[in-house]
Amino acid sequence: MFVNRMPRFEVLDEDAVATLERGWRRILTDVGVAFGDPEAIALLRAAGQRVEGDVAFLDPEFVLEQVALAPTAFELQARNAEQSVHVGGDAMVFASVYGCPFVREGEIRREATMDDFERLVKLSHAFPQIDTPGGVICEPGDRPLDSRHLDMTFALQTLSDKPYFGSVTSGLNARDSIRMTEILFGGGGEIEALPALLAIVNVNSPLRYDERMLAALMEYARAGQAPIITPFLLMGAMAPVSIPAAIAQQTAEAFAGIALAQLVRPGCPVVLGSFLSNTDMQSGSPGLGGPESAIGLLCTGQLARHYGLPWRAGGGGLTSSQTVDAQAAYEALNTMLPAFLAGANLVMHAAGWLESGLVSCFEKFVVDIELLRVLRDEFTPLRVDEESLAFGAHLEVGQGGHFLGCAHTLERFRTCFYRPLLSSTENFERWQRGGGRDATERAAEIFRRTLEEYETPPIDDGVRAELAEYVVRRRAELGD
Q: Cis omega before residue 434 (within 30°)?
């Protein structure tokens, strides 16, 4: 977990914030939000909200009252207490890529498998820049659809001792994630007192929550776990082609879900999610990693602080690139840097994202780790004091000398500068003698070496056995 103490970069003045608030208020009162679950509609109706069919027209003052019930920050526990994280304030928590049906390794792009999932969890555990492997780090297509969430949760629990995400594809799957987490932590009371699960709840934008996501949201809220309520907006497809319009819609959609979570369990921890980008108007494909993504991140971070909510950034190392090339790197930086500038509390897709989120890539994972390492150094406040002025070095070297051999340098040369994990600083001749490998090739060597050196974190044998028995039993009950 990184603590970002640098000043926040704010792009909205008071008038802009007020205008955006008028925008989301109008959407909630005049357009409304559809909730595809009778229980959700009943809760909103009982709270005095106007309902027509499955559409709720929400009073903005009621919504703000509900939003105010959510904690401004919370602790998320891991089975290894040293890996627990703080969500909110100046803390930044980084999660790996999420939800990709394909993987890329070298020149091979193929459907993801359970072995890929496990290897990506191991990489997430091994690199300290990643605070949580997340959840669906890739979609293992070689396991049955109805029960693969059990295998993924078991892998997240046993191959890493960092916090993890629960399944959200149904209310039933959410209950399985909660029960397995209760087993891991020794009972429901342990995770109810201090949440141990995050869960991505996506809005079916525009302005609709579907039955599956609502069922999962309410299960996690009832159990006191933390849903990340995230509109998924590609301007031109799921939102208007204006950034302010999309920001207003994003706020309306997220606030509607947060209000519902607080009706289920007042004080339930939640995270304001964002994922805002554009549709390429020539191809119809998602355009990820461009300036619109960056501006959306800066605006959303400012609004999250304005309303006192922990915030999940929609990037991450996002890119539309099909391979690990210069485009993949500069687009990833263009969405990772604004997350730091805006003070995101949870950064999704922080390592491994490729091809507009279709691909989890092993080499890109390492490229993104390098970006995280660099940015964490850049966002560490500069220490300026008498020692750092190094006046003694000037006295020793004087005019026209050099500092390579002076005492100040010799005392500090091992730690004075950033040492890259991936980047090369060799001259051309030495680089060529070493094989002339580019960054992608070097990244492949690093991820393979990291997996070779991986050590499984210890877990109580009895707990592991109980988890394994639960997976076997539930798989049979599900017919798989």
A: no
Kindly report the CATH number assigned to the domain that includes residue 278: 3.20.20.480
| Contacts of 346 by beta carbon, 8 Å cutoff, 6+ apart | 87, 92, 93, 95, 198, 228, 271, 310, 311, 312, 313
Q: Name residue 86's beta-bridge partners.
A: 75
pLDDT on residue 336: 97
Amino acid at 453: E
172: left (phi over 0), alpha (psi -120 to 50) or beta: alpha
Residue 55 falls within a domain, yes or no?
Answer: no
Beta bridge partners of 95: 132
- Provide the pLDDT confidence category of residue 187 given band limits of 50, 70 and 90: confident
Would you say residue 145 lies in a domain? yes
**Residue 354 falls inside a structural domain:** yes
* pTM of the full structure: 0.97
Q: What pLDDT, in 10s, does the model give residues 108-165?
A: 999 999 999 999 999 999 999 999 999 999 999 999 999 999 999 999 999 999 999 9
Residue 6 CA to residue 303 CA, distance in Å, equals 18
Rg of the chain over all Cα atoms, to the nearest angstrom: 24
457 within domain boundaries:
no
